[in-house]
Design brief:
Number of helices: 16
Structural class: alpha/beta
Radius of gyration: 22 Å
Distance between the termini: 43 Å
Largest sheet: 8 strands, mixed
């Protein structure tokens, strides 16, 4: 049993007092020297859903706005083969001309978000208000802390710890990192911090390992999130899963069994520089923050999920205008594979533990999808049916909670071919059979700006899916133990 000073409500207070940390002075200096950190203003920007009449019109729009970077119109998310419509982010300056173009072509459209900046501001204010209320609640509880006894260290306090730090709001990287450290301090017998390297700005790339027992030969489950900075629901969902493992071990035999049988390695954000930048400067930032020189222009960042050393830039082989080669574009795949310290660190850690990691899961948003290998080609992996069966069972468990529907398939089946992704690398290089990507809520109404009210239901349904995935994983004795093959 934990002693009273390790009670989680005490740790929540520590978060606000002695344990707060800021980025190092060196990384802060790099940030300030590279560019002006004046926030990007999206006032008047709209997200517009277009309904092309024919496949030819659809492909024409995709091709033009994929290859044009200065038109003030970009694809809000990648086109899906499951949905004929296309979502575009349109600047205030380009709005009139874009709508005129659509009307001239007689293409129907609807406005999903009528002022992007207003929505960003509203969500930021909601998050600040939630944090303020929690800080006031913690301050009111300080007097009672001195009267706490060992018997107060309960599951309720554990939930309170989560609620008062990172729950139901989009915490920044410092807040997430401090919360992970406090979890590890409060529960040293079942959790510990691990660091796989440093980001471009020198920030520690940290995660948490959770397990019961010290058997170093246990199989492992890997979950990462936040490789794309603007997909805030992914780190928030990873936080939810961490909390579910910590608090669920008391009275949920299934969760306790998962901790006894597996080591869980969870990294809520593997792109902390980009994630921070999306909080401070550009809410829609996707890439890392490395500096790239291109034709006398200084560009920033690489799409880390196009930067892995497996069929890197294969879709660009016969296409000189390939988006992956546009250094200032959102999906720039880097000057070379593994050009980013973040992708190098991730690959090194996973390769060092490849014999024990039995499932690789990467959390993204949005579109509500289970994506399976391969991404670089339209061909399926040889064991596609096994991964599809696992995903189908997970989707059923997920849908059961809130009737949220997910589709299943390869990126080539559902979206588009994309090479150099972490999922393909985990399977093709690290040899992890069950390598899967989940695109979380929603399907476009809010997109990357999913309201904080949806964090908890997204976390609950994703955790239900993950539990079902591991349940199916255990059935594959050939893969797990190399028996019954």
């Amino acid at each position: 049993m934990l002693v009273c000073r390790s009670c989680v409500h005490l740790s929540a207070v520590l978060l606000l007092t002695c344990c707060w940390s800021e980025p190092t002075s060196s990384s802060q200096a790099i940030r300030e020297s590279e560019e002006d950190l004046e926030p990007v203003d999206y006032s008047g920007y709209q997200v517009i859903r277009v309904h092309p009449g024919t496949q030819q019109e659809r492909l024409s729009l995709i091709r033009y706005y994929s290859e044009t970077t200065d038109a003030g119109v970009t694809l809000w998310t990648e086109p899906s083969k499951l949905d004929h419509s296309l979502d575009f982010l349109v600047s205030k300056k380009a709005l009139r001309a874009f709508q005129l173009l659509l009307r001239r072509r007689r293409l129907s459209f609807e406005v999903l978000i009528d002022d992007l900046q207003r929505l960003i501001d509203e969500q930021r204010e909601e998050s600040n208000e939630y944090k303020r209320r929690e800080e006031e609640r913690i301050a009111r509880n300080r007097r009672s802390i001195s009267q706490s006894t060992v018997s107060n260290c309960s599951e309720t306090n554990e939930r309170d710890f989560y609620d008062s730090t990172v729950a139901n709001r989009y915490a920044n990287y410092t807040e997430i990192s401090n919360w992970l450290k406090l979890v590890a301090r409060a529960y040293p017998n079942i959790s510990e911090i691990f660091e796989i390297g440093r980001s471009y700005y020198g920030q520690p790339l940290t995660g948490i390992k959770i397990t019961i027992g010290r058997n170093s030969t246990k199989p492992a489950v890997w979950i990462d999130a936040g490789i794309h900075a603007r997909e805030w629901i992914a780190p928030a969902t990873a936080n939810y899963i961490i909390n579910a493992l910590i608090t669920g071990r008391h009275d949920d035999l299934v969760i306790r069994g998962l901790l006894e049988e597996f080591e869980w390695y969870i990294m809520p954000s593997i792109n902390p520089d980009g994630y921070d930048y999306s909080h401070t400067t550009d809410r829609l930032w996707r890439k890392t923050r490395s500096r790239v020189q291109s034709h006398r222009r200084t560009c920033f960042g690489v799409d880390a999920n196009r930067n892995f050393d497996f069929h890197w830039q294969s879709e660009c082989e016969f296409n000189p205008r390939c988006r992956g080669r546009l250094a200032c574009g959102d999906v720039f795949s880097g000057s070379r594979p593994l050009s980013e310290p973040e992708t190098i660190a991730l690959t090194n850690f996973i390769l060092a533990n490849r014999n024990r990691i039995k499932m690789y899961l990467s959390l993204h948003s949005y579109s509500q999808l289970f994506l399976l290998p391969w991404g670089y080609t339209t061909e399926h992996s040889s064991d596609y049916d096994d991964l599809k069966n696992m995903s189908e069972k997970a989707a059923i468990a997920l849908t059961r909670l809130y009737d949220t529907n997910y589709s299943i398939g390869t990126p080539g089946d559902i979206l588009y071919k994309a090479s150099g992704g972490s999922m393909d690398w985990a399977k093709g290089v690290a040899g992890i059979k069950y390598a899967i990507t989940m695109e979380l809520r929603d399907t476009g109404s809010y997109g990357f700006l999913l309201p904080a009210q949806q964090i908890e239901p997204t976390g609950k349904e994703t955790w239900a899916a993950v539990k079902e995935m591991v349940k199916e994983l255990k059935k594959d004795t050939c893969w797990m133990t190399r028996t019954n093959c």
